């Protein structure tokens, strides 16, 4: 009888843990790399890699790999089409039976830039077609994103960066998520920089706090492509 009661208590405890939201009370981290490499006067290649953790240095959440081809209409307007792969561990807790989800994503994007006084603004409009593999089922979803970013140079080396990005689902519930971000940045060289900041990622029923460390490396490859 005691063994049965103990087993039931253990089972209810596991179910209670599993019912909790996946790690919203923990400070997680995103470690990111972004590259924009010009290959001609009008075209550049976008590369991106992100490792997202439920905690600052452990507990894997997501791997995101993304690339795209940019067409520079002018210095302040860029059109992009690209592809992303996303592998996700959907739970903060580890369960033997869990199946990680995979996503193949196609996106179309348009960026507009402008300057007001000392502030540099960037408007990013993005459409995404998401092909989801959830283990036992597959799904196709569509969504739109709009990001307003503002950068304020402090010196030739240091700057502040802020953005707010809204995700809109084009099926089911309209609101997807909202990301509010602020960071301190440093220009390492003419073509590279580092940002360290904080992001508040709000979903319909939960909010995640994330440390963000981002490296930007944008060498001009036009000379290399001309030689080859």
Question: In a nutshell, what does this entry contain?
Answer:
With about 230 residues, the chain is mainly beta. It contains two helices and eleven strands, in the order H-E-E-E-E-E-E-E-E-E-E-E-H.
List descriptors.
228 residues, mainly beta, Porin, 2 helices, DUF2490
Number of helices: 2
Rounded to the nearest angstrom, the distance between the terminal CA atoms is 78 Å
List the domain count as a whole number.
Answer: 1
Query: What portion of residues is helical?
Result: 10-25%
Signal peptide: 1-19
InterPro entries: DUF2490
Protein name: DUF2490 domain-containing protein
Pfam families: DUF2490 (PF10677)
What do these coordinates show?
This protein is mainly beta. The chain has one domain (28-227): monomeric porin ompg (Porin), CATH 2.40.160. 11% of the residues lie in helices and 64% in strands. An 11-stranded mixed β-barrel has the order 1-2-3-4-5-6-7-8-9-10-11. Strand 3 and strand 4 form a beta hairpin. The model is unreliable at 1-20 (pLDDT under 50). It holds the Pfam family DUF2490. This is DUF2490 domain-containing protein. InterPro entries: DUF2490.
Please render the helix and strand layout as text:
Blueprint: H1 2-19, E1 27-38, E2 43-53, E3 60-74, E4 77-88, E5 101-116, E6 119-133, E7 138-153, E8 158-169, E9 175-189, E10 192-202, E11 207-217, H2 222-227
Parallel strand pairs: 1-11
Antiparallel strand pairs: 1-2, 2-3, 3-4, 4-5, 5-6, 6-7, 7-8, 8-9, 9-10, 10-11
């Amino acid at each position: 009888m005691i063994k049965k009661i103990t087993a039931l208590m253990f089972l209810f405890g596991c179910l209670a843990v599993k019912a909790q939201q996946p790690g919203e009370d923990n400070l997680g981290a995103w470690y990111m790399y972004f590259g924009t490499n010009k290959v001609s006067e009008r075209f550049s290649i976008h590369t991106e890699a992100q490792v997202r953790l439920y905690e600052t240095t452990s507990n894997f959440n997501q791997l995101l790999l993304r690339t795209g081809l940019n067409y520079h209409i002018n210095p302040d307007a860029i059109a992009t089409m690209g592809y992303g792969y996303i592998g996700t561990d959907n739970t903060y807790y580890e369960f033997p039976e869990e199946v990680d989800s995979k996503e193949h994503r196609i996106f179309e994007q348009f960026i507009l830039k402008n300057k007001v006084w000392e502030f540099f603004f960037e408007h990013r409009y993005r459409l995404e077609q998401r092909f989801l593999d959830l283990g036992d089922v597959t799904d196709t979803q569509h969504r739109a994103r709009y990001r307003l970013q503002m950068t304020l140079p402090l010196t030739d080396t240091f700057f502040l960066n802020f953005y707010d990005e809204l995700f809109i689902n084009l099926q089911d519930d309209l609101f997807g998520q909202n990301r509010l971000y602020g960071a301190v940045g440093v220009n390492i060289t003419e073509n590279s920089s580092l940002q360290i900041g904080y992001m508040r990622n709000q979903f319909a029923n939960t909010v995640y706090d994330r440390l963000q460390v981002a490296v930007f490396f944008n060498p001009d490859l036009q000379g290399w492509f001309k030689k080859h």
